[in-house]
Here is the input.
Amino acid sequence: MNEDIIFRYFPEMDGRQRERMAMLGPLYSEWNSRINVISRKDMDNLYIHHVLHSLALVRFIKSSGLRPESIFDAGTGGGFPGIPMAIAMPECRFTLCDSIAKKIRVVSEVSSALGLDNVTPVCSRTEAIKDRKYDYVVSRAVTELSKFIPLTRHLYTEGILYLKGGDIQQEIEECVKRCRITPEQVSVHSISDFFEEEFFESKKIICIFRQKH
Here is the structure.
């Protein structure tokens, strides 16, 4: 599967964005052969399982009328969802964070090769980052929500946008109970509302917004 799947859903992308999307395949193939950041059997599905999945957050942000100026990608791994989002949202600043140095090296090299000047790679644990605030924290299911929120709560002013698959109701209930958030702060959106591929049937975006006082 190549990058054409991206342009089918995002026909508004300009020439530079299309060029960068097309570069993701060769760049990740090269880096994945050196540093395994994506399952090798999954490389054939890079554009659906990783790039388009990441861009579900862009579709949600734009369809919801949100206008973030800064986004923090917690546990980015090799750069997902942050790098595809940064290509699609050049007006927004992205900080891509992971505690594993070799993964952040991939993020640095890929974002440099793409010429993404709105990406800042950071090698750190999220809880060690102090005195910095971002509009939103995004992530791809790095841990259970009830563990994730305490690690990132100090970083965002607006909320969390979390990519997660499967049955998530119990996880959300546990999160509400443990993290002292109200059910009204949480909403769940099906990615299959945006993309028709079978892969997305059980995939969701969990949104947790800060309570407004």
The beta strands are 70-74, 93-98, 119-123, 134-140, 156-165, 186-190, 203-209. The longest strand covers residues 156-165. The chain has seven helices and seven strands.
